Amino acid sequence: MRVIVLIGAPGAGKGTQAGVLAERLGLPHVASGDIFRAAIREGTALGLEASTYIDRGALVPDEVTLGVISARLSRPDARAGAILDGFPRTRAQAEAFDRALAGRGNRVERALYIEVGEEELVRRLAGRRICRSAGHVYHETAKPPRRPGRCDIDGSQLEQRDDDRPETVRARLAAQLAPMLDVVDHYRGRDVLAVVDGDRSIDEVGRALLRALGTAPTAR
Ligand SMILES: [Zn+2]
User: When you count CB atoms within 10 A of the terminal residue's CB, does the N or C end of the chain come out lower?
Assistant: First the structure.
């Protein structure tokens, strides 16, 4: 079973790359947010337990999270392995996950860290602009409007949400990066870490990730 952990800050393109890797390697893309929602929707015992925390805005305890992930990895489509996206989020989760995998005679094959500098992350995350009248979404660099500051569709003014202001983004990132870097450290200590420069195009990052997994990056 190939257990591959993908690590990256918000804005690093982790979800996109997880999808690319999953397709290329024929493994399911296991995004922690999705499987929580699925477990809750399906009303599994763990899903119900998780929802008691989520409903009151509390953090789901690690053992519940680990249970949900383990149950997902026990499904038939994950027999050959999985690409994990969004888990583990903390060193404690990474350690508990190692123990759970070891109990099945398994281990994390590779932890792939998509590294993007903090200022570049701020630039990506703070670039979003929303049109005032209908909420059409643009991005200063990734999806600029044809006319600066104006919506292509209805011509209304584009504005930046408070949530997307650089200082807000920077503060949010600071809180998110510390636990993520602990996870990076954990896998470095386990000698399974590969760091990939994420400050490149989606295709280039995807090829670098495949190379880090020992898979030829050329298309089939
Ligand atoms: Zn618009």
Answer: C
Buried b (16+ CB within 10 A) or exposed e, 96-114: bbbebbeeeeeebebbbbb
Calpha distance 102→82 (Å, rounded): 16
- Distance (angstroms) between ligand 1 centre and the Cα of 134 equals 5
Q: In CATH, what number does 2-117+191-212 get?
A: 3.40.50.300
Catalytic residue among 72, 89, 124, 207: 89
Per-residue pLDDT of the chain (220 residues; tens, 9 = 90+): 999 999 999 999 999 999 999 999 999 999 988 888 888 888 888 888 988 998 898 888 999 999 999 999 999 999 999 999 999 999 999 999 999 999 999 999 999 999 999 999 999 999 999 999 999 999 998 899 999 999 999 999 999 999 899 999 999 999 999 999 999 999 999 999 999 999 999 999 999 999 999 887 665 4
Whether 161 sits among the annotated catalytic residues: the reply is: yes
Locus of tokens 């925390």: 53
Tell me the domain boundaries of the chain: 2-117+191-212
